[in-house]
Amino acid sequence: MDDRGPSSATPDPPPADEEGDRWVLVPASEVEGADAPKVFNWEDLQQELARLWSLSAALQAARDRKADLAARLESALEARRAFLQQDNDLSQMRHRLQEHSDHMGDLKICTKKLSDDVEDQREQLAVRIRTLTVAGKTLGAAHSKLEEANRLLSGENGHGRLKNLEQKLRMRQQHMITQVAHVYPVRPLDEQSPTVKRGLTSIIKTSGAESVLSNGPQKPLAILGLQLSKLSVKKTGYFSDKTEFQKSSTVLGYAAHAVSLIASYLNVPLRYPLRFGGSRSYILDHAPSVELSSITSIVGSVPPSTSMKTMEFPLFFDGPETTRSSYAIFLLNKDIEQLLNYIGAESLGPRHVLANLKQLTMIIQSQHYVSN
Q1: What is the structure's pLDDT at 204?
Q2: In whole angstroms, what is the distance from residue 361 CA to residue 343 CA?
Q3: b/e per residue, 114-133, with b = 16+ CB within 10 A?
Q4: Is the pLDDT of residue 98 over 90?
């Protein structure tokens, strides 16, 4: 066997491709067992070196496997963490899904209730539609009748002709009552001319009607120069003068005749009918009879009685007893007030027989009466 030098006996270390695989010189103090090195024979050195090289290669393989296992373990841990994160996310999604399912269940219940309510309202609406349909048909029929009535009113014999006839009737009534006013003129006592003085009276509207009021102090009125004297039912024997008694009776006869004619021309049945007899006229009262001794005023309330019969009251004065005559004048004024209300006017009061009669004739003679 040839002796080989150390260079041939010791194999050269393989070149390291990486920086971590190169041989590095370290101090002896850092090498384990450097103080008591193990001595090998020269013949065993090559075997020991081969064994060390084999151990070094095995150690490197173990390190590689360790690194590979560490990488695999890290990958597994990362996958585990990702799995846990996904599991948490999935759990949250399940929780939200459960809440959504519960909400959907509540919505289904509400939808069911709303569907039932809508069905009930639909039935009610159907009933209302049928009712409206019937009402619409009825309204259509009524509208057709109304159009037919309008055509009849606007025709030759319709509303226009009626208005013309009514205006002609009022003109005729005005003409006839004007004649009555000329026959029985009611004027102030100091007026001698048949023409009424300008500015003495004026016609004004009161509560939708026309009233005749004096511009100055009210003057006593008379018919054909005869004045109705004021009476006092508390005094007896007031008319001691027979001439004064006859004048007042004549004035009441004139007024009664004028009222009777005006009522007949206006076609108004009087509430208290008149039985004309000139200065011996009577007025009838269909109300329950009263005890005349209990009447203290012609404008007072009439006490009720048990008997029901028509009574006549004289529109004239005969003797000292004036109670019945005063009540007759009160009833005559009520008839004049009835005629005033018929034409839309108001009375001047219960003690103004001639003033109310004058107002009645003047309103009827005005243009407003015809055009109204």
Answers
A1: 34
A2: 11
A3: eeeeeeeeeeeeeeeeeeee
A4: yes
Q: How far apart (Å, rounded) are the C-alpha atoms in residues 145 and 142?
A: 5
- CB-side exposure of 107: number of CA atoms within 13 Å? 6
Residue found under tokens 């007899």: 277
**How long, in residues, is the chain?**
372
Separation between Cα atoms, residue 340 and residue 316, nearest integer Å = 24
What pLDDT, in 10s, does the model give residues 25-71? 767 677 666 677 677 677 777 888 888 899 989 999 999 999 999 99
- Which helix or strand (DSSP H or E) is residue 311 part of? strand 311-314
- For residue 170, what are the contacts with CB-CB under 8 A and spacing of at least 6? 369, 370
Please check whether residue 353 is in contact with residue 336, taking contact to mean a CB–CB distance below 8 angstroms. Answer: yes
Instruction: Measure the CA–CA gap between 96 and 91, rounded to whole angstroms.
Output: 9
202 pairs with which residues across the strands?
213
Given a contact cutoff of 8 angstroms between Cβ atoms, the answer to whether 187 and 219 are in contact is no
Q: What is the pLDDT of residues 171-211, one digit of tens each?
A: 888 888 888 888 888 888 776 444 433 333 333 333 333 34
